């Protein structure tokens, strides 16, 4: 079965709706079926991979640590729009250090998160065969 390039675009905050959790679950399912999966975090979606999430006050389960499992499913292309970070007063240092292990380089750990400009994000999205927006 030929693989296609699937991009999952995350635009919503991690809690308050089901979009972020549903996106993550669909990504893990697609990756389990060996599809080429990438994620884009745009607008409030950048909060999905922010460090230090605490859901105690809202009565929802904190699922942010699940993003650390993406590397195990060979999902290692997480694109974060730089302008979305800046508009929310965030920097790359505010994001979780999501890593993957490169078997071609003796399992060296490498970062999965890539900060890209809005123009670069448009180019990346244009390259995808299938795009899902959450």
TrEMBL record:
Coiled coil: none annotated. It comes from the Bacteria. Pfam families: DsrE. Belongs to the DsrF/TusC family. This is tRNA 5-methylaminomethyl-2-thiouridine synthase TusC. It comes from uncultured Thiotrichaceae bacterium.
